[in-house]
Amino acid sequence: MAEVGIIEFSSDISEAEAPPALPIGEYMATVEGIESRISNTSGREYIGVTLRIAVDDFPPDFTTDAYPDGVQLRYNRLFTEDNARNRYTMRKWCEALQAPMGKQIDPNDWIGMSLRVGISHRKWEDEDQANISKIAAAA
Which of 114, 78, 109 is nearest to 96 (CA)? Predict the structure, then answer.
């Protein structure tokens, strides 16, 4: 394992405040990554999707200082077990991405594809965090 060196920040972290959450609304998002994961609660396999909302898609009055590279979010609702619910959820996801569909799906094809996401807020450790509450086709 690699040794970790000293970390230096531009200011004292004891005075750091939580950045504001991305405002509630709809945004364009791009798929940056995918990975096969196992749910801690159910033990079921799912595909974890990493999405990014670019700074250019932020509302004009939202500061980009805390998010110079955009906001990265995870979408963890694509379970891979072959049943009616999961097939339908996968269909809706592929429709939103306008990705190829059939009996076989290659999630690697999703990298670089875009869709619209609805953002809501949820509390985590007493802080508002952006949460994907809806997906839709980009156009």
Answer: 114
